[in-house]
Amino acid sequence: MLSLLLAATLAAAEPAATDAHTAAALKMIEASRADEPLKMLKDPTAPMVQSTVAQFQGCASAKPVLDDFSKRMGAITFSDAEIGEMRKDFAAVYTDVFTQQELETMTAFFTSDLGKKLLDKTPEIMQRIQGASQQRMQASMENAQKIGQELAPKLDEAFRACQAAQGEKPAN
């Protein structure tokens, strides 16, 4: 009985990714630049340190504490080995979602001229999309604000009526 249960459990378990499948995921991650954020882990606090130091430009009395801050924050880093392990974690996710063939197809695309163009242009595209959507959102939010201001007295009145009907003391 136990052997049947064990056999059923093993048959239902997901097969582990093969070395070739994992290698395909790692190649696709590199080709698609999905691991770009990992490069920032070499010095993850640098943007915060630069921003903080910039706020004190021309303030010589802050130099000692800023130097200490910079030194201590600079010690927060990830080793190449740790970053490599994170890359493997990324690959495990991709191997769970995509077949080896799909990963190889994506790698071929991202290494093609069109794939490289997509990757190169993505920041510009995202910035332009964000700008366009912000304009539309601003108009919608202005509209929502007008409706809210227009209906605020009626909503307050309705709320007080509900409280009164429930025997509660109306809030001011």
The whole-number mean of residue pLDDT values reads: 86
Residue share in helix = over 70%
Number of domains: 2
Gyration radius, rounded: 28 Å
Structural class by helix and strand composition? mainly alpha
Approximately how much beta-strand content do the residues carry? under 5%
The low-pLDDT segments are: 1-13
Distance between the termini: 70 Å
Count helical runs: 8
Strand tally, please?
0
- What coarse outline follows from CA principal-axis ratios? extended
Topology as a string of helices (H) and strands (E): HHHHHHHH
Q: Main β-sheet: number of strands, strand sense, barrel status?
A: none
Quickly describe the structure.
This protein has 172 residues and is mostly helical. Helices cover 77% and strands 0% of the residues.
Question: What is the topological layout?
Answer:
Blueprint: H1 2-12, H2 19-31, H3 36-39, H4 46-55, H5 63-74, H6 80-97, H7 100-111, H8 113-165
Q: What does this protein look like?
A:
This protein has about 170 residues and is mainly alpha-helical. The chain folds into two domains: about 15-110, no CATH class; about 120-170. It is built from eight helices and no strands. The protein has helices at about 1-10, 20-30, 35-40, 45-55, 65-75, 80-95, 100-110, 115-165. Mean pLDDT is about 85; it is low at about 1-15.
